[in-house]
Every structure is written in structure tokens, then in C-alpha cells.
From TrEMBL:
Signal peptide: none annotated. Coiled coil: none annotated. Residues 7-287 form the Carbohydrate kinase PfkB domain. One of its GO terms (biological process) is small molecule metabolic process. This is 1-phosphofructokinase. It comes from the Bacteria. The gene is pfkB. Its EC number is 2.7.1.56. The lineage of its organism: Bacteria, Bacillati, Actinomycetota, Coriobacteriia, Coriobacteriales. It comes from Olsenella porci. Pfam families: PfkB. GO terms for cellular component: cytosol.
């Protein structure tokens, strides 16, 4: 079974402004709302692939209730601790000429609610996968992922960590099965500016040496690279698309990789499928649907076949 954890979920409110002038009233041409937060995005894509999973998390208020009800309606199993105060944040995504995001702070989480979540997460069994992804709310200890992994250590659980900077570096001690920074995050860690998968290879190798079993570095439209557990390097291009909204593309990639690995696929196949999932989401409104993933995967396989001839 795959479990995801979303400590600070969100309602993603996507607006399509015609123009964006700071200090003036701007009008949007259309709006959409999605259940967001990285773990929820991973769960949403896994659900689209019909891969059983449970979304753990913390929610609050009317937005939290909306989130939980919507997950339920979509057939996603969730196990959320509800807070007595505050509300799950609404993250505003202004999809203009460029994408501008304003992510909320989220509610204050009391210690006893964290303990309740940790007790619920204790049900995870050997062989299960736990995806820890996204930012940590300010009211929780910064090393929250470390706390969770230490609590579950030695139980044969596969950890997947997709977190920014220092949080990611601290997670390496737990020897996670997979980490997936993007090229910008890798650049910030190593004080460099890698753009392409090839340029990311030495940094992925370092992250592997420091503890991560598999390291995917995603590079947006440039594709991605995997430095695998056997020290093999795999790179994958992307299929060309009309970019709609790349929110959740990295989460979709994580979901695709984990789903394929659980199926027993080799790393090369898992990376290729993961890339298709990321691209399909970048070409979609919200997290990609199965039909789009299948179409993009077929196109990507064709591109790779043509490149090898
Ligand atoms: N503009 C794009 N065109 C095609 N594929 C994309 C695009 N943006 C993202 N992707 C796909 O999604 C993956 C993850 O995107 P990326 O932006 O690197 O991650 P993150 O969302 O974590 O920042 C990429 O490796 C690629 O497969
Ligand atoms: O926890 P953070 O860092 O504020 O990010 C939350 C946002 O990230 C997402 O989970 C994914 O967005 P990105 O693909 O831009 O990282 C959104 O659904 C959500 O609004």
C-alpha cells in the first residue's frame, strides 16, 4: 500500500487574469479550484492510475471539510486529523503570461494533533511506501519528516521524500527509497545553476552518496534524470506540449515512478512513465487524467525510439 502525508494541504484557486497590474483591480477570465498540497497531488494521480493509496494529513475549517469531501467523492481514501480552529489554506495561482503563486501559511497545529497524526501513521506495514512531500507548516518542528521516519525506522518501510533544501538533506540519513528535487532545488543545495538532466548528474550522484537510494532530478521541459540504486544514470526527455499549468507536475512524476516500481517495472521504464505523468499534468488543468497520461506516454516512447535510431 502507498501512503502520502500532506501536513499543509491547500485548496488551489487558479485564476486566469487577462492582465496583471500590481496596485490595480485585475479581472480574471476564468477560475478553477483543485485539492492541492503535494501529498494530495500524488494521491490524486495514483488514484487516476487505480493504484490503492491513502492520503494522510491535517485539515481545518470549511476549506478542510471541502477538501476531505472532494477527495472522498473522487474515490481517494483519506485519513485526516481535523483541527478545532483555523482553516485549510487557499493557495492562489495567477496563470497569466507567467504563473504567479501566492501560497498561504495554513492553520496553527497544536502538538496534540500532531501526536494524533503520528499515531494514525503508525498503522503502516513492512513493504508499504510512505510519501513525505511538501513544505512543513511553521507551527511544526522543521524536522517533521525526520521525526516520522525515525519513528518508523527499522520496519521495512519505503520512504519517498520530496522536500525543499535543508529538509531534504536532513532526510538523507534515513536512506529514502526516492528523493525528487528539481534542478533549481539541486542548484540551491550545491550553489550551482544546472539546467539540463546531464548537468545535474554530479549533484544526483552526491545525493545518492549521502544516502538516497534513487535520486530523480526533474528539469521541467528539459526532462529528468535518475541516478539509481545501482549507480546507473538514466535520462529522459519530455514530449512537447502546450503548457497549461505545471502545478503538481513534480508530484505527478513521483506518483508515476512509485506506481511503476510497485508494479515491478525496471528503473528505465519507471522514469519514462514518471516523465509522461509529469508532462501530462503540465498539459492539463489540474492533475492529469489517465487518458492524457496514456497519450503522452505513447508519444514519449515514440520520441525515444526515434532518438535511438
Ligand atoms: N513545460 C513542460 N513540458 C513538458 N513536460 C514538463 C513541463 N514542465 C514539467 N514537465 C514534466 O514534469 C516533470 C516535473 O516538472 P518540474 O517542473 O521539473 O518539477 P516540479 O513541479 O517539482 O518543479 C518534468 O521532469 C517533466 O517530465
Ligand atoms: O506547501 P507549499 O510549498 O506551500 O506548496 C503547496 C503547493 O504545492 C502544490 O502541492 C504543488 O505545486 P508545485 O507543483 O508548484 O510545487 C500545490 O498543489 C500547492 O498549492
Amino acid at each position: 500500500m502507498i501512503y502520502t502525508v500532506t501536513l499543509n494541504p491547500a485548496i488551489d484557486y487558479v485564476m486566469h487574469p487577462l492582465t496583471l497590474d500590481m496596485g490595480f483591480t485585475n479581472r480574471s477570465s476564468s477560475e478553477e479550484i483543485y485539492c492541492g498540497g503535494n501529498g494530495i497531488n500524488v494521491s490524486t494521480l495514483l488514484n487516476e492510475l487505480k493504484v490503492l493509496n491513502v492520503a494522510f494529513g491535517i485539515a481545518a475549517g470549511f476549506t478542510g471539510e471541502y477538501l476531505i469531501n472532494t477527495l472522498q467523492k473522487s474515490g481517494i481514501s483519506s485519513n485526516f486529523v481535523m483541527l478545532d480552529h483555523g482553516f485549510t489554506r487557499i493557495n492562489v495561482k495567477l496563470n497569466g503570461i507567467v504563473m504567479t503563486m501566492v501560497n498561504g501559511m495554513g492553520p496553527k497545529i497544536p502538538e496534540k494533533k500532531v501526536d494524533e497524526l503520528l499515531e494514525r501513521i503508525d498503522c503502516i506495514q513492512p513493504g508499504d511506501t510512505l510519501v513525505l512531500t511538501g513544505s512543513i507548516p511553521k507551527s511544526l518542528p522543521e524536522n517533521m519528516y525526520d521525526i516520522i521516519m525515525k519513528r518508523l525506522a527499522g520496519r521495512g518501510i519505503r520512504f519517498v521524500v520530496d522536500a525543499p533544501g535543508q529538509l531534504l538533506m536532513e532526510a538523507l540519513a534515513a536512506k529514502p527509497f526516492l528523493i525528487k528535487p528539481n534542478n533549481h532545488e539541486v542548484g540551491r543545495i550545491f550553489d550551482a545553476r544546472p539546467e539540463t538532466p546531464e548537468e545535474c548528474i554530479p549533484f544526483a550522484e552526491k545525493l545518492h552518496e549521502r544516502g538516497a537510494q534513487n535520486v530523480i532530478v526533474s528539469c521541467g521541459s528539459h526532462g529528468a534524470l535518475l541516478y539509481d540504486n545501482d549507480c546507473q544514470v538514466h535520462t529522459v526527455p519530455t514530449a512537447k506540449i502546450k503548457l497549461v499549468n505545471a502545478t503538481g507536475a513534480g508530484d505527478s512524476m513521483v506518483a508515476g515512478f512509485v506506481a511503476k516500481c510497485q508494479e515491478g517495472a525496471d528503473y528505465e521504464t519507471a522514469l519514462r512513465f514518471a516523465s509522461a505523468c509529469g508532462t501530462a499534468t503540465a498539459a492539463s488543468r489540474g492533475i492529469a487524467k489517465r487518458a492524457t497520461i496514456d497519450k503522452v506516454y505513447a508519444r514519449l516512447n515514440k520520441i525515444i525510439e526515434e532518438q535511438s535510431n
